[in-house]
Amino acid sequence: MVQTIQAQDISLEELQENFGLQLTTDEKFFREWQDNLPSLTYDEKSCLARVRSNFFNLANRRSILEEGVKMVVLSPLLDLAGFFQSPFSIRTEKSVEISAKDRELIVRGRIDVLIVQQRLWILVIESKSTKFDVMEALPQALAYMLSSPKSDKPKFGFLVNGREFVFVKLQKADIPIYSRSYALSIDRENELEQVLAALKSIGQLS
Q1: CA angle 183, 78, 195 (to 5 degrees)
Q2: pTM
Q3: Pairing relation of β-strands 3-6 and 22-23?
Q4: pLDDT for res 193
Q5: CA gyration radius for the chain?
Q6: Pick the residue with more confidence: 28 or 137?
Q7: What local confidence, expressed as pLDDT, does residue 171 receive?
Q8: Dihedral, CA atoms, 125, 130, 135, 137, nearest 10 degrees?
Q9: Among 2, 51, 75, 122, which residue's beta carbon has the most beta carbons within 10 A?
Q10: Strands 164-171, 120-127: parallel, antiparallel or unpaired by DSSP?
Q11: Residues 19/176, Cβ–Cβ less than 8 Å
Q12: What DSSP letter does each residue of the chain carry, written as one string?
């Protein structure tokens, strides 16, 4: 009997068992979020300082919900990274579906934000409330990334809860492998700058 599960409910263990997904420990596999990053301009750093100020002004009062995370943190980052300009396009709430090789499991869900460049999926972005651990979005994001058309080019994910940011890389093959960054924090100014620089660097890949 075919089982259907929502992407938001799937676990890493289920992705491993049904889709063969594996975490790689090869440190050379995912360097795009930390090597050869572009320098930021004074204006870009000033904009990031404003993002931090806006975030802390709101977060000090209460947890910021998902829509607030998108508005206060995610949208300014995407703008500064150039994702609102050609050749990129943005799709929101895109429905996706993947099925296991034995067709006994179907995973369905909706991507929060999808950045597309010439049909190459650059980022699958999962934004959560600040009260959730950012890593809770990892299985869901990986499920969405697995649903992308098979390609020799890797797919990149970006997990956001407002306070923390995690980059993910997936290489689809007979055995799909992935790796992730550690959680970068808005609490540390230099790490928010690294987030923007990494977004710009990944956006330049083609």
Answers
A1: 30
A2: 0.87
A3: unpaired
A4: 97
A5: 17
A6: 28
A7: 92
A8: -40
A9: 122
A10: unpaired
A11: yes
A12: --EEEEGGG--HHHHHHHH--EE---TTS--TTTSSPPPPPHHHHHHHHHHHHHHHHHHTTSPPPHHHHIIIIIHHHHHHTTTTSTTEEEEEEEEEEEE-TTSSEEEEEEEEEEEEETTEEEEEEEE--TTS-GGGGHHHHHHHHHTSPP-SS-EEEEEE-SSEEEEEEEE-SSS-EEEEPPPEETTSHHHHHHHHHHHHHHHT--
Q: Which pair of structure tokens corresponds to residue 128?
A: 């959560």
- Name the token pair of 184: 């970068």
The position carrying tokens 């934004």 is 127
Read off the pLDDT of residues 32-83 as tens digits, 9 standing for 90 and up.
999 999 999 999 999 999 999 999 988 777 777 777 888 889 999 999 999 9
Instruction: Compute the mean pLDDT over every residue in the chain, rounded to the nearest whole number.
Output: 84
The token duo for 64 is 């910021």
